Amino acid sequence: MPDFTFKKAERLKSLKIIGGLFKDGQSFGVYPLRLFWSAQPMPEGGLPVQFTVSVAKKNFKSAVARNRIKRKVREAWRLNKHRLYRKLEDNPQQYVCMVLYVAKEDLPSSQIEKAMQTMIHLFFKKNIAPANNQIIDEPPLS
RNA sequence: ACUGCGAACUACUCCAUCGCCAGCUGAACUUGUCCUUUUGGGCUCGUGAGGUUGGAGGAAAGUCCGGACAACGUAGAGCGCCGCACCACCUAACGGGUGGGACUCCUGUAAAACGGAGGCCAGAGAGUGUCACAGAAAAUUACCGUCCUGAGCAAUCGGGAUAAGGGUGAAAACGUGCGGUAAGAGCGCACGGCGCUGCUUGGCAACAAGUAGGGCGGAUAAACCUUGCGGGUUGAAAUGUCAUGUACACCGGUGCUGUCCCGAGUCAUCGGGGCAAAAGGGCUGCUCGCCCGAGCCGGGGGGUAGGCAGCUAGAGGCCGUCCGUGAGGCCGGCCCCAGAUAAAUGAUGGAGCCCGCUUCGGCGGAGUACAGAAUCCGGCUUAUUGGUUUGCAGUGCUU
Q: Which residues of chain A have pLDDT under 50?
């Protein structure tokens, strides 16, 4: 049974780090989402990923609409993050990730979740897989 | 029953699965410590499975007023600046509310009364300024006119008086009538109007009614201004507190000694080497001693990341008696009702409810409108869908 929780410790909180992500982080987009991430040394007792969502005020003026979209994206992460966690078990680094919602309209959850799955897969392929393949044998994906 | 105008309440509901935040409880693990030492037990710092309770709004919004609270400031007085402005009351306070009064508009009427609506309702009779166009003149004015008078044969021209009539204008210096006069004029009188001062009556008062006196002074204070009253400044990103790591102001100590091995020895010690965190320099010919000193050890302040307090039991909510026209108040009973910190309060599926279409089988839409707590209250303003209850008015039906 995968862990579907999303506790405080998994959330990215520091304003400094979030600001740094825009400046120095890497990114790619899977419509309607765009991922910003960077790696940092694993702190004592830390989790493999710290995650947060952002919706631009420019695109959604109503606070209620922004809240709704953030909840949908957070749910998509919560239900799919185990796919990434499973592959990061022995990773010595911690990743800080922020997902920006770039669409200008409120899309249904199914589409957001699909994009999230694609994005997690891409993130793994682009970033982690090449480094890890040299050290350990990756078991075939189930 | 329908329509219109208000008022109050409400803010989709249920089920399943997976979650989030906070409080309480708490298996288990863990830090320190004590007792007992047999197996353990007590206190304590953390982590925390599970259980249980609660978890957005009427406007949470705009941030427009008023407070609480906090920090800083503060002898007293004056000037300035800002705000407020019919009266009384309510309130912690207010620019809010309640009740009352004048005014304006609507309705209504012969005229009123009754009824409805509205608001920057102190002062223009303290001073200064301004008043488009038209008009002679917009505040001490005279174009036409009227009257008197001088010149001239006359047309006409000049001097003076006047403000009734004409004309202009949103507004022209109280209205009508009579007297009066050269013609006129509140110049005088009668009636009426207005506002000022005093008095009487009613009212806490604003004010109303009446009466006497002396008046007739255009608008504008959202122009300056005058009068009265009120006002320290900054806001929870306030403020207080704990404080890891790195670097650092400052203070104290230390800045050498211990130990091992080898050699010498008069058995006091001396020399060399290794190890342990650890240079030396100045005063001097040398030793002792004193001073400075990188480093090391300890103290320590400010304070970054971050944590905690402020932070939710309150001018609190609900119910009831009584007082008050009312806003509201006294008393009694019951209840505890979000507290996040990049920011929880949800996501998905199904059913109902709702809306649209309908061949009455269904099909489609919908986080139903406006909208997301951020120190907390009291208001105001603005946005807004549907439903429930209810008051008043009108129409219709039944009895």
A: 1, 132-142
CA A86, A68, A6 angle in degrees (round to 5)?
A: 25
Inter-residue contact A51 to A11 (CB < 8 Å): yes
8 Å CB contact between A66 and A55: yes
Quickly name the fold that domain A8-128 has. Ribosomal Protein S5; domain 2 (3.30.230)
**pTM listed for this prediction:** 0.75
Q: Are A99 and A73 in contact (CB under 8 A)?
A: yes
Note the strand B nucleotides within 7 A of protein beta carbons. 18-22, 56, 60, 305-306, 341-349, 367, 371-373
Predicted complex ipTM: 0.83
Check if residue A53 sits with its Cβ under 7 angstroms from strand B: yes
Cis peptide before A32 (omega within 30 of 0): yes
Domain ranges within chain A, ordered by starting residue: 8-128
CA atoms within 13 A on the CB side of A84: 28
